[in-house]
Design brief:
This is Dehydrogenase/reductase SDR family member 7. The chain is α/β, with parallel strands linked by helices and 327 residues long. Helix content is 49%, strand content 11%. The protein has helices at 2-19, 28-36, 56-67, 79-92, 114-125, 148-176, 197-217, 263-275, 286-297, 299-309, 311-319; strands at residues 47-51, 71-76, 101-105, 130-133, 180-184, 224-229, 280-283.
Length: 327
């Protein structure tokens, strides 16, 4: 009888994780935290530095944090876009002062300016509570045709800039006794995504670096949150890396595609993950989310299914169309 009960519970457990993700737009833990966990308002008054905040996920995360009276440092290379985001933050929350939202033009790949920039922010705001490593770019390319310089350039932006800045910030957090590192990874940091070899490698590398840090320190006062979005309705495709150095993909993103989650929703869920100090969260429409659960928890079954579906399936799931010639 006990064996039958255990077997029934096991079957129900697996069925739950096969079926339930089809009806949500994030992993189960984040879904529960959204419903029953800490509200975003617990971040009120925090000083948050967001790199890559001139558009997309970073921009909409800034809006969510502005609503709860966070003090923000908005960083990217496009100053005019940062000014636009700042103005929207102040419009969203009139109680914020102009000095509460800092437009800070910043090239994350200029490592020599990282320490000086951190010092400036601490001097201006008196502290830094949360660093959000959000700067980065995607890629569309055929694996064997990728020039090694593309790999180096993409890792420089997506990985090494975040690592260098985070090491400086972590030392500061350790000195003051608390802080929070947030990293925008991707479902590509969990899966092997076709036609984005360098990008997928860079996101896997982020998990390796930051999970190593988490295991090394095990410091509950300095949590590390890995945020893994799937397809989001942002105009990222046109600026994506390709297989050729210096050449952008140049194709417009179908921002209204049904397979993509809105950046507003992604920014909100990301703020929930930060407020609840989650180690990792997945944010995506159901299709990609279910594939992630399948690959992570049922690898043998996933191999059988995905082999039948083929690489074009992944492209449609991600871009709503075939974007790279599979011949």
């Amino acid at each position: 009888m006990w064996c039958e009960l255990v077997g029934a519970i096991t079957i129900i457990y697996y069925l739950f994780y096969i079926i339930f993700p089809w009806f949500i737009d994030c992993d189960v833990q984040l879904y529960l935290k959204e419903k029953f966990g800490q509200p975003i308002y617990v971040l009120s008054g925090k000083v948050v530095w967001i790199t890559g905040s001139s558009s997309g996920i970073g921009e909409h995360l800034a809006y969510e944090l502005a609503k709860v009276n966070c003090k923000l440092i908005l960083s990217a290379r496009r100053e005019e876009e940062l000014i636009r985001v700042k103005q929207q933050c102040l419009k969203i929350n009139p109680s914020l002062q102009d000095s509460d939202v800092e437009v800070f033009k910043f090239d994350v790949c200029d490592y020599d300016c990282h320490e000086k920039s951190l010092g400036y922010i601490i001097k201006k705001f008196g502290k830094l509570d949360i660093l959000v490593n959000n700067a980065g770019r995607s890629q569309r390319a055929t694996w064997e045709k990728i020039d090694i310089k593309v790999d180096k350039d993409l890792f420089d932006l997506n990985v090494f800039s975040a690592i260098n800045l985070s090491r400086l910030v972590y030392r500061y957090f350790a000195e003051v006794g608390s802080g929070h590192l947030v990293v925008t990874s991707s479902l590509a940091g969990i899966l092997g995504v076709p036609f984005s070899g360098s990008y997928t490698g860079s996101k896997h590398a982020l998990h390796g670096y930051f999970e190593s840090l988490r295991g090394e320190k095990m410091n509950p006062n300095i949590p590390i949150t890995m945020v893994c979005p799937g397809a989001i309705s942002t105009p990222f495709l046109s600026h994506s890396f390709t297989e050729t150095p210096g050449v952008e993909f140049g194709e417009k993103t179908d921002v209204n595609a049904s397979n993509k989650l809105t950046p507003e929703r992604c920014g909100y869920l990301m703020a929930i993950a930060i407020a609840n100090r989650l180690n990792e969260c997945w944010i995506s429409k159901a299709g990609a989310l279910q594939i992630t659960y399948l690959i992570r928890y049922y690898p043998n079954l996933a191999e059988m299914i995905l082999t039948k579906l083929g690489p074009k399936f992944f492209q449609r799931l991600r871009d709503n169309k075939v974007t790279v010639d599979t011949k």
